[in-house]
């Protein structure tokens, strides 16, 4: 995560709570002596980077429901503090929680000592890291490439360093189909990786760093395990309406097409702008594979249970079907009931015509099957989150 705050965080165990200083981190879990339990019944303790973000917040909720303890690191440069509060509120509705297994630390991944302080303060120890935190807009990456190499590649290296110092050897990495570039579809895990923009290249370099670190640690007898999940285009929101995508005002123009569609449908913007109507596709607009965020999170949970010492595995996570931008807009019109005005502009640098997944491997090896395969159904969950007011800020 790219941030301006430099933090030095140390862990202090005090009165049954973990306190991270100097930046106030908050701990919702009481120790076992306060619950009457004889032993810790959690499935594990997971560090989630970027847990206040769109995908990360959904993952935190699912992990808590799966009986994992969760510690979140986020500097809120792209995430929402409201998402953290929504997670805390959601825990009140979770049945059979004998403790409050959630910790949030506002910290920047570029500060290794801050990250290391969070890792070392965790009680019980963190056993696995799920690394979501990243800037993730293709157009922005072309305009500001150094920001992307710093935020994605360098921060991943810093995280790996902190993990090594803390003795943590299990990682699930949030990668992207953008590492493939413009290739023949459907995309398999063996498709050559030739990214066409700095976002994809920065993610690919991070993959290299993880694989090389795994090799080095395995040679040293540390048995590092990692699973790299290459996402396709993520849409939707928590079906229960607890969390969803809500970019801040200054980031809205960079965001996902669903955000722009809903903004146009709500009158937040006068029209929807599409970039490129002359791609070599059936209707001239680019084609993408849209995966519901809940299905993506499900793949992470299954990957978490499939990590094996000494192995690095890669999986594409997509529905396996492509929809054009025109088809996407028509689905958005159906869901919202709005007549969305469309303005066409030239292609953006770094965009490619068509990409969708061959998800055979993840389905076979992780027994993963997407629950949301209808585009309109997926969009309906996001629209419901939008219509209820999102996290209660400026979203309409």
What does this structure look like?
With 396 residues, the chain is an alpha/beta fold. The protein has a domain at 11-236 and 290-320 and 356-371: Rossmann fold. Helices cover 36% and strands 18% of the residues. The protein has helices spanning 32-35, 54-65, 81-91, 112-121, 138-143, 145-166, 198-219, 257-266, 293-306, 325-336, 360-366, 375-387; strands at 10-14, 17-21, 26-27, 45-49, 69-74, 102-106, 128-131, 170-176, 225-231, 233-235, 272-275, 287-288, 290-292, 312-317, 323-324, 342-345. The strands form five sheets. An eight-stranded mixed β-sheet has the order 3-6-5-4-7-8-9-14, sandwiched between helices. A two-stranded antiparallel sheet has the order 1-2. A two-stranded parallel sheet has the order 10-13. The two termini are 27 Å apart. The model is unreliable at 1-22 and 29-37 (pLDDT under 50).
């Amino acid at each position: 995560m790219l941030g301006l705050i430099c933090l030095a965080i140390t862990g202090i165990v005090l009165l049954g709570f973990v306190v991270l200083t100097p930046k106030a981190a908050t701990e919702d879990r009481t120790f076992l002596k306060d619950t009457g339990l004889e032993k810790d019944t959690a499935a594990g303790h997971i560090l989630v980077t970027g847990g206040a973000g769109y995908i990360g917040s959904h993952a935190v909720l699912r992990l808590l429901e799966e009986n994992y303890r969760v510690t979140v690191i986020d500097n809120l440069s792209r995430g929402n503090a409201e998402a953290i509060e929504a997670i805390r509120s959601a825990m009140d509705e979770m049945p059979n929680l004998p403790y409050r297994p959630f910790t949030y630390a506002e910290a920047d991944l570029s500060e290794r000592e801050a990250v290391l302080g969070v890792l070392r303060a965790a009680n019980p120890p963190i056993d696995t890291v799920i690394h979501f935190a990243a800037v993730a807009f293709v157009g922005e990456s072309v305009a500001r490439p150094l920001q992307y190499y710093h935020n994605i590649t360098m921060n991943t290296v810093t995280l790996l360093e902190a993990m090594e110092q803390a003795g943590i050897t299990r990682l699930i990495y949030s990668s992207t189909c953008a590492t493939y570039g413009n290739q023949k579809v459907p995309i398999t895990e063996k498709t050559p990786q030739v990214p066409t923009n700095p976002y994809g290249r920065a993610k690919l370099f991070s993959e290299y760093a993880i694989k090389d670190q795994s090799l080095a640690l395995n040679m040293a007898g540390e048995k590092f395990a990692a699973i790299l999940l290459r996402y396709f285009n993520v849409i939707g929101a928590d079906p229960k309406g607890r969390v969803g995508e809500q970019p801040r005002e200054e980031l809205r123009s960079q965001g996902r097409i669903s955000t722009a569609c809903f903004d146009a449908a709500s009158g937040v913007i006068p029209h929807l702008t599409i970039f490129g109507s002359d791609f070599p596709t059936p209707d001239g607009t680019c084609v993408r594979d849209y995966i519901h965020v809940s299905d993506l999170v499900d793949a992470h949970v299954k990957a978490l249970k499939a990590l094996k010492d000494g192995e690095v595995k890669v999986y594409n996570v997509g529905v396996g079907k492509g929809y054009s931008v025109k088809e996407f807009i028509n689905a958005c019109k159906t869901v919202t009931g709005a007549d969305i005005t469309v303005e066409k502009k030239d292609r953006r640098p770094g965009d490619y015509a068509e990409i969708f997944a061959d998800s055979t491997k993840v389905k076979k090896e992780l027994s993963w099957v997407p629950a949301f395969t209808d585009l309109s159904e997926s969009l309906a969950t996001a629209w419901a989150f939008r219509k209820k007011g999102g996290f209660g800020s400026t979203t309409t």
